[in-house]
Design a protein that fits this description.
It is a single chain. Helix 12 runs antiparallel to helix 15 and helix 13 packs across helix 15. Strands 17-18-16-15-19-20-21 form a seven-stranded mixed sheet, sandwiched between helices. The chain is about 40% helix and about 20% strand. By secondary structure, it is an alpha+beta fold.
Length: about 475
């Protein structure tokens, strides 16, 4: 192998599956291969919905064994969830899943102490019922939290098991609603008012910081030869995905598509206005002092749940049939928390259409078209609102992540936004993970340099908007009840 090319293992954990990818990076080359994929199946036990974190860790070890010799390892995952450790560093039970019902009604209790507008002004985080702040408030009186001496967010927990070292990576910490996005440090006053012990958290670390080396037991388990460093990356998968947006300049919006759609802008400073809070935009932290100003939209979860309900489905044929269904016949609010829980998704979408006086989609193709139109409409509104609230106009929308494989959704998003859409890369989170590791080891330059390398090496597809946006404007007004 060329000495100028190095190999990096990216552990990328999503809400339904995990995978280990190996990226080979040179000064003008970037190649990514999946070496191991494993399921991520939440488990419902008598006390609620839990993550099978031991199964995930076993998948990580299997993936590192399959990866072979690598120069570094980095881990990214979904946000907000955590594991609790006792004084000996042992895990206190399986981490609670963010879709668990324990946070129902908790936000109102928090707002009684720190009103919602004050909380937003201090942390810049949109309201989501599962934010770590609400999870910790829900857990306040539990024996498990009382026993805990350390709290590690999911990627930091797995990093701890690999290396024996504890830290709290900043991009993921910014999703807890306990970080001040202006100082990029803890929101000490908020935590104090709510009785949250910030001493539970390990010291903050930045993307690119060293996070230890693989323990001897891990080397033995995986067959790797040490030392193998572990590097902190943008450990919130969206932070890694946005780092891999192949944009030039600043006039771009992005949509990270997958189970969720995260639609917004990359800014130099947070937007903490009351109008921004009312529009439910969040200010999460990204690489190099950037802010991810975005809105969470339910995303392809809606379609995934429908496919699960329908049983064995040819997704390609379903999307082809959906493309023939009349556009914008029925739309739903893709950000509605009513769609958050699993189960009965086709019926719930039908019920929402019926309740709003729209034609009720019946066939799988009609339901699918309703979902994709609704997502494109939500993408349109998020991109429009973000530009207005941040005073930051854009000329192009970059779509990255799993949704790039859905050509119909990409085209509908271009149509709805009235802007060209550049789709790709599909494996944005893993690529961002790999590039932060490569940068930490001196192989690539700054964020702009990382993005130029992506443009040169990754397949991208451009979708031009078709027709005017008037029908989308009308559908948006209809959904708003205007």
């Amino acid at each position: 192998m060329n000495a100028a090319v190095k190999s990096y293992a990216a552990v990328d954990l999503g809400a339904s599956s995990g995978r280990v990818m190996v990226g080979r990076v040179g000064s003008d080359s970037l190649e990514l291969n999946e070496v191991h994929r494993f399921p991520n199946r939440p488990v419902r036990v008598p006390e609620g919905l839990r993550w099978d974190v031991l199964g995930l860790y076993a998948g990580v070890l299997d993936g590192l064994r399959a990866a072979g010799r690598v120069d570094s390892v980095g881990i990214d995952s979904w946000a907000v969830d955590y594991g609790l450790l006792d004084a000996d560093g042992a895990l206190l039970g399986n981490p609670v899943h963010y879709r668990d019902s324990r946070t129902e009604g908790v936000a109102e209790k928090v707002w009684a102490t720190v009103p919602a507008e004050e909380l937003y002004a201090a942390t810049g985080l949109q309201y989501a019922p599962f934010n770590t702040l609400y999870q910790l408030t829900a857990a306040r009186s539990t024996d498990r939290l009382a026993q805990a001496r350390r709290l590690l967010l999911m990627p930091d927990l797995l990093t701890y098991w690999l290396t024996g070292e504890q830290g709290t990576e900043l991009t993921n910490a910014s999703t807890t609603q306990l970080i001040d996005p202006r100082t990029r440090d803890w929101a000490y006053e908020v935590a104090e008012r709510l009785g949250i012990d910030l001493g539970l958290f390990a010291p903050l670390r930045q993307p690119g910081d060293p996070a230890g080396v693989l323990r001897p037991e891990v080397l033995e388990e995986t067959g790797l030869t040490g030392p193998v460093p572990v590097t902190a990356v943008g450990s919130h998968d969206t932070a890694s995905a946005v780092a891999a947006v192949p944009a030039s300049g600043e006039r771009f919006a992005y949509i990270c598509t997958g189970t969720w759609s995260l639609a917004g802008l990359e800014l130099e400073a947070p937007v903490l206005t009351e109008e921004s809070r009312a529009a439910n935009f969040t200010n999460e932290l990204g690489l190099d002092g950037t802010v991810r100003y975005l809105r969470n939209i339910m995303g392809l979860w809606l379609l995934q749940e429908c496919v699960r309900a329908w049983g064995e489905t040819d997704l390609g044929a379903l999307l082809l049939e959906a493309s023939k269904v009349p556009a914008l016949r029925s739309v739903v609010d893709a950000g509605d928390a009513a769609f958050l829980a699993p189960g009965r998704m086709p019926e719930r979408i039908a019920e929402a259409c019926r309740a709003s006086g729209q034609p009720v989609p019946e066939s799988p193709a009609e339901v699918t078209r309703c979902i994709l139109d609704s997502l494109a409409l939500a993408h349109r509104k998020a991109v429009q609102d973000a530009q207005r609230l941040a005073g930051h106009p854009v000329d192009v929308v970059h779509v990255v992540g799993g949704g790039t494989r859905n050509a119909l959704l990409c085209q509908l998003t271009a149509d709805a936004c009235g802007l060209p859409v550049v789709a790709g890369p599909t494996e944005a989170a893993a690529l961002g993970n790999v590039l932060v590791q490569a940068r930490a080891h001196g192989l690539v330059g700054d964020l702009a340099g990382m993005r130029r390398l992506l443009v040169r090496t990754q397949p991208l597809t451009r979708y031009e908007p078709r027709g005017g946006t008037e029908r989308w404007r009308a559908a948006q007004a209809r959904l708003a009840g205007d």
